[in-house]
Adenine DNA glycosylase (Flavobacterium chungnamense), 345 residues
Amino acid sequence: MEFSNSLLHWYLQNKRDLPWRNTSHPYPIWLSEIMLQQTRVAQGLPYFLSFMDAFPTVFDLAKADEEQVLKLWQGLGYYSRARNMHKTAQIIAFDLNGNFPNNYNDLLKLKGIGEYTAAAIASFAFNEVVPVVDGNVYRVLARYFNVETDIASSSARKEFTALAKELILNDNPAQFNQAIMEFGALQCVPKNPNCEICIFNSSCAALQKKKVAELPIKLKKTKVTNKYFNYLIFLDDSETTLINKRTEKGIWHNLYEFPVIETENEIDFDVLSKLVHENYSDLKIKDISIYNENQIIHKLSHQKLHINFYKVEVSNKLMNGISLNSLRNYPFPIVIYNFIEKYSI
């Protein structure tokens, strides 16, 4: 109990003023939690404000077109979060009359809501006594109690949740959960935390055993695959170009992109030119040139994308082409959007 009370006292003195903390309404709380999954607060906050401005209620979000949702989400990454969020908004608005489930177990049934997000909404919006366990909480508990369980293991969540449950304040679960997450985000940070000013520097087991840098333990490494994307920006005499919607399941599902030649290995200009002429012989290609001097590297959680953009000028008028001026109206992966902006396409 001393740990929990000290933590709460620290939180009230050090907490950041964030808009979703000034309400107990489940809609903005849910929105913020989905956005902050694998995303820093500084990056997520502008998106949260934009979404709240565009979709003040769950009904507004539910009625929105998916392309509008994806366009606003552009740059935040992990786009499946946005698609799931949109579908869940429709269920809440149209099937549940705008009422969020008011408990952890029912929240878990919604698309895109896992154990962490369900616990966060249940405690922050409905004051349910359920611990929230995220990366920050793993780190604080692992260090304070010297827990050497691999946080990537299947048993970790159960063990850390049980530990957090022993510490949670039954009369104020929401504030306790906010406090321990904030402590991990601001004080007990992953690298080089300032333990000298920490409120727990006389009771933290990791500090006493000089194991702060070692904890928490995470052994499983994510295997990263390399992919090579060669994007083709076709241009006819009318300054129109071609884009496609990615309909197959994957990281950029339902986002737009230029026609692409994907390869398993890097290819040189001559090979690329030959492939373009073979695959698009009907367009009467006049010239091919590369935009970017250096290959663009775009890192994702499981993939490393090696990207080049090529200008492909054609004699024939492009069927289903769109004007260059209208490109910015479409939701693109951020790496393509940045290319459009940089080269004023």
